[in-house]
Amino acid sequence: MNEMKREKHFDPLDMNNYRIERLPTLKKSGFERWMSIIGIPLAIFAFVYIYWFAQIPFLDTFDVSLLGKESASRFTELGAEGFSRINYAMLAIFAASIILWITEPIPNYLTSLVLILAVVLTGVTTERTAYAQLGHPVMWLNILSFVLASMLVKTQVAKRFALWFVIRFGKNATMIIFSFMVINIVLSAFISATTAKATILLPIFMVIAAIYGATGGDNRNNFGRNLVLQNLFQINIGASGFITGSGANLLAGALIAGAMGWGVFSYQDWFVAAFPLAIILMVIGWFVGTKLIFPLKKGEDRPQIEGGIDRLKEELAKLGKMKPEEFKAIAIFVAVLALWATDKQHGISQTAVAFLGAVVALLPKVGIVKWNDVDIPWHLLLFSAGAYTLGAGLDATNLPGTMIDALFTRLGITVDTPYWVLFFILTGTMLFSALIFQSKTMRTLIFVPIAIGVAQRFNLPILSLAFPVALLIEHVYVLPFNSKPAALLYATDHYSWSDTFKFGITMMLIGWVMIMVWGETVLKWLGYTSGVFF
Q1: Contact 126, 81 (CB under 8 A)
Q2: CB-based burial label for 109 (10 Å; 0-12, 13-18, 19+)
Q3: Is the pLDDT of residue 437 over 80?
């Protein structure tokens, strides 16, 4: 039974009962504990073996004449006698880092710090290059986004909007879920941290679930399952519609822009291609959840507690009238969003726009927040810095492209391989990797460069493979350990592992079909692909 229910005077309609610190902590399973025990020795073994002893025959004896002119040139630059020791060093660091990030015997940010040190000590990159990743434009954009998001938290304008919208439009079970769909889309445009969105919305949808008779544990029902799982899905998929929707999206944009020789990946270009897909997937998710997997039983579509909606109105009333700070927060966010959405017209980068918004927000007397009000998760930023350093090392050694060139040639995969086969494999790998990897940033760092390398290997436009792969970053909702929002919402005790797996894997398969449809239609019309099958 949910721990919260053990309290003597538990009020299911009191939002204070659903604060993050009062939710049960998700404990590691036996398998996860076993993985954390072997993580460090396995990572050390992988590093030592690859760095000092490994000899990969198909790389060391690789005949560069089998490659095209551009690929052969890149391979030759890495060492006159094939795969150089620097490349083995990068491969060793990469393997050890992935093992530590997956098994989590130490915090992810500490793995990143070790990674940065290893890149420097092995000579993969210079100290200047390795340490400079903390100042990467995307890192700055992440920091500044947290400054802007803090305005929503301090002024409570996000809570006000969510409460007002649900009260105004959530007249029945279906409209409540659609109300949260709209709320998640709006918040995704402004907040780049999916966990922050979950934190803001969780108390609200938990109270609504209680109103409809779902308080978790022994009192689960299909309305509660749908409400919580739909929010988990919408929190993540809503983020996929905007390049600023998450740090992983921003990283993917930076990787693609770097390969294309651009300064930045346009907010506008990402939005036009990704936002309609996100909306369609959320609507499909509503249908699959409420009509097929967890259909509402008789009575579950109506409130079970008298006066429940009145409690939400009381919460809204406690906020009082709109304050000047709230109007300021709205004005700053609308201005930032407008400048982001028109970046191709004025040429100001997303990071520079965020700088402008943050400066205004922090200005004494004029602004809204003080520095001490800003909640910046530095452990996440240090983890990201390590990921970017790993990316810099991969770029310096051209490891993804080289291994793809050599491996494909070794396996007899030629340039005659149909485009749809490459598209099918890369998008499927990106999607289902989310069942294993716990970090969107890590998956982005691994699979977007691979997609870029495959495109270059087959003389295809980089965007034709890398962009579809990037659009699948946010599919991290199948199992509780697949993302922080997934772990947070599982702790509400409104659904089981089998519940989230049934809904999640169904939507993941639908997402795979939809990205292929998107590649054949919208991405083709926008010029990113020439069609997938025809």
Answers
A1: no
A2: middle
A3: no
